[in-house]
Design a protein that fits this description.
Layout lengths: L1 E3 L17 E3 L7 H20 L5 H12 L11 H18 L4 E5 L4 E7 L4 H6 L1 H18 L5 E10 L2 E8 L15
Antiparallel strand pairs: 1-2, 3-4, 4-6, 5-6
């Protein structure tokens, strides 16, 4: 929001003291287009999940990822940097849906916690968390699969805060050690 100061000269406002400030929304700061795009995706996923009754919300999310994210050829990531690059690509998909995701890593980059801030489907998720969160978990898992990471664990913790859910993504693929040998995974 941008502050607007009153016009100089003439009546400077009411009373003594600093001039009042009036705030308005800056043009383009509320991107309605991405919200509409996210709702269109959710509508497609819900139709698939409940259209024939044979697809779970997680399967619908994974199917969406398979249809909409190009498959990467090649082996799974062998280093933390390569792995985090693929996680970043998946985060870009979440941002397209309308999230403002934040990322934290642990286990030398092997595990990522993604804070899913301001879910574009928050109201629906509050009343139907199994459906909305299942779709999101499935779409994250499907995206990682499309990015060549089939040996990945994905979990989702809904509502760890009022407008915050957390996704946990972990690779089970051993990273290449600096000496060229693979590291052991616990």
């Amino acid at each position: 929001m941008a502050a607007k100061s009153p016009r100089h000269g003439g009546n400077r406002g009411h009373g003594v003291g600093r001039p009042r400030k009036v705030y308005s929304v800056a043009p383009g700061s509320l991107d309605q287009g991405s919200h509409e795009h996210a709702l269109r995706i959710l509508t497609e996923l819900l139709a698939e999940a409940f259209g024939d009754g044979n697809v779970t919300p997680a399967e619908a999310g994974a199917n969406w990822a398979r249809k909409n994210i190009p498959a990467h050829a090649g082996p799974p990531a062998e280093t933390a940097g390569a792995w985090l690059g693929k996680v970043a690509e998946m985060i870009d998909v979440l941002a397209e849906w309308g999230y403002t995701p934040d990322l934290a890593t642990s286990e030398n980059g092997r595990t990522c916690r993604i804070d899913l801030v301001k879910c574009p489907f928050l109201d629906l998720a509050k009343s139907n968390p199994a459906v909305v969160c299942g779709i999101h978990r499935g779409s994250i898992a499907g995206a990682m699969e499309q990015l060549g990471e089939t040996n990945t664990d994905v979990s989702l913790e809904p509502f760890v805060g009022p407008e915050l859910c957390q996704a946990h993504v972990r690779t089970r693929t051993p990273f290449r050690a600096r000496s060229g040998h693979s590291e052991e995974i616990a």
